[in-house]
Write a structure and sequence with these properties.
The chain is an all-beta fold and 198 residues long. The protein is 2% helix and 43% strand.
């Protein structure tokens, strides 16, 4: 079974959530009227220059992949705390800055879909989702907005591409090769989502 993929890059919108009211107001279903167009990949400040703390991305799309197999949502990069909702249902969350992550959305996906992504990152000494800036990985970013030689702007959001993948029921989830020739060590993680063996 061949793997299919669909790049989710067009027609995203974004809204700032400085009061952290999006979850209780149901932003995973529809963003407020204050939402603006956004680029994905693209950091929050590219669409909302003065937005820090919490923001929501959203896109509506049709699943145009072939029938069968599993449906996976793959994020190449999102910073820092990322919560992913598909059709109003939380499908997973990820903490990190530069590592890819994947969620199996086979049981949630429909023909017409609403994908909502809540991202948050502290930008100072204030708590944002239980974290302060100094408590999370941030490389050479500064907690304030100032830049000095060798430092980076404090960015957050969806920094890499987002894809919908169609994979077989049994697929290689991760593959690692170390060394070469007869000395090589290969480690593979295989996901088996098919029927139980009898």
């Amino acid at each position: 079974m061949q793997t299919d993929r669909m790049l989710l890059q067009e027609n995203w919108r974004i809204a700032h959530d400085p009061q952290d009211i999006g979850r209780e107001e149901g932003w995973m279903q529809a963003l407020p009227d204050t939402a603006v167009a956004a680029r994905v990949p693209g950091w929050v400040h590219l669409s909302l220059p003065d937005a820090f703390g919490i923001a929501w991305y959203q896109v509506r799309f049709q699943d145009s992949l072939r029938e069968g197999g599993r449906r996976l949502l793959r994020f190449a990069c999102a910073t820092y705390l990322t919560q992913v909702y598909l059709n109003g249902q939380l499908v997973g969350e990820h903490r990190g800055c530069e590592d890819p992550f994947v969620f199996d959305v086979t049981e949630v996906i429909a023909r017409d879909n609403c994908l909502s992504v809540r991202v948050s990152k502290p930008y100072g000494d204030e708590l944002v989702d239980g974290y302060r800036f100094g408590e999370i990985p941030h490389r050479n970013e500064r907690k304030d907005c100032g830049l000095t030689p060798g430092s980076c702007f404090n960015t957050f959001g969806i920094g890499g591409k987002v894809e919908l993948l169609r994979v077989p029921d049994v697929y290689i989830e991760d593959l690692y090769v170390c060394g070469e020739g007869d000395e090589a060590v290969i480690c593979a993680t295989v996901a088996n989502c098919g029927p139980a063996c009898q």
